[in-house]
Amino acid sequence: MAMHFDKEMVNPNIARTVRFTPILFEWLIKVKARENMSFNQVVLQCVKNCMMQDCEEK
Question: Are the C-beta atoms of 14 and 43 separated by less than 8 Å?
Fold first, then answer.
């Protein structure tokens, strides 16, 4: 399943440190390689997808 990256997610400017479990980190690395995206782009897109799903449920 291909992941679509939204143009509005380009050039993020708020830095944060996030610690991942080994399983999540390995999965993110696989998605990054498969989708030819940066690690940061994958994380941002995953968060946005969760945010959109949460908004739809309310």
Answer: no
3-state secondary structure 10-28: CCCCCCCCCCCCHHHHHHH
8-30 pLDDT per residue, tens? 777 888 999 999 999 999 999 99
Cα gap 10→30, rounded to integer Å: 21
Tell me the domain boundaries of the chain. 22-58
Examine the pLDDT at 47 and tell me if it is beyond 80.
Answer: yes
Torsion, CA 39, CA 44, CA 50, CA 53, rounded to 10: -130
Residue 39 structure tokens: 């690690």
Q: Both tokens of residue 2?
A: 């291909």
